[in-house]
Amino acid sequence: MKRSTYFYSILALLLIFSCGENKENTEFTEYSFDTENTFENQEAKPIQQKRKKHAIKPYYVMNKQFGMPIGAMPIPNNWTKKEQNSENIYFEGPDGIQVFGEVSNSFFYSNSPERNQYTLQTGSQVKPVKNIQRLIEEELKPLVEAEGFRFKNQFPLPQLAQFDNRFNSYLFKSTPEQRQNDCIVTEWESTDGKLMMVIVRYYIAQYTSIGGLDWGYTLNSLLAPKSEYDYAKNAYINSLVNFEINPKWIQVHNQYYAQTALQNNAAHQQRMANIQAHGEQIRAAGRASSQALDNQYNNWRSGQTASDASHSKYIDGIYERRNMTDPSGNIYKVDGYQNNVWMNNNNEYIATDNSLYNPNTDNTTNDYNWQQLEETNNGY
Question: Is 74 left (phi over 0), alpha (psi -120 to 50) or beta?
Fold first, then answer.
């Protein structure tokens, strides 16, 4: 049975309920890639360092959809990638440094109840907008403090907000958007004296041509002893701000979704031509107006969903996890690829390849009511 730690429970609860510091790289040498060699050979150029402790190496973030890296992040040489684990630890460094897998959440909202209802029917979340400070005050702080952490400090991180804006600007959009990114670093201290950093990466995207907006956030977090915290914090921020984007992935990604948009538009045009050919001028005029509005909205949702799905899928690919649903339609992120997964009312789950195993009949586990989960594509 896999049980989450206190910190991972904070991130999971956030999914349910839901920059002014000068960058100094004195601890790290300037980091760059040779795009002709880095992404083809997946080998980093030699990097000269003053102190071995602060030597860095590239970690490649792979995209399973297109079979290539999205890019690479520079991490300390002595950090290692953790295998899948219930604590959601992504990287682990010496002396108790733990970097957790990032968690993302997104919502749609419109002044039109019909649009909101349509969005819910497609499986997306609908929620009124909260700005980044309200998100921290009303959702992040109460949950973290309830786990025994004391809030110490927060500061903006505009460099990471600028990176997020630049990365998003490279991606194909079927509908123009007005997007704003923001980033705030929050710092916490536990009762046992450890220090924690939670980076809140916030965005809001408005679509003035069709109405409505998307908004959401990504959390990047680490936990470290006081003696290692400043080093770990600077190293992780450096790896996020200096993420090197693979231009070949951008090209392949955009070609794929641009072609998808063209095919959708062509299919719509053919449907309109068939209607006109049958001489239904009056009814066709009404349907054309309705179809045009629906197509515009669906193309927009398709483009946005495609971008969100692409991002979500590559994150899930990194963490080796998948979406699964219970009989009530609730969607969960589950580690690994075992054939049989059971979950109880405490969101604890058992994963096994034994098709005959049932925890409800197991004397060591049958004090809970277990429901079997099924794999689903919903949630992307």
Answer: beta
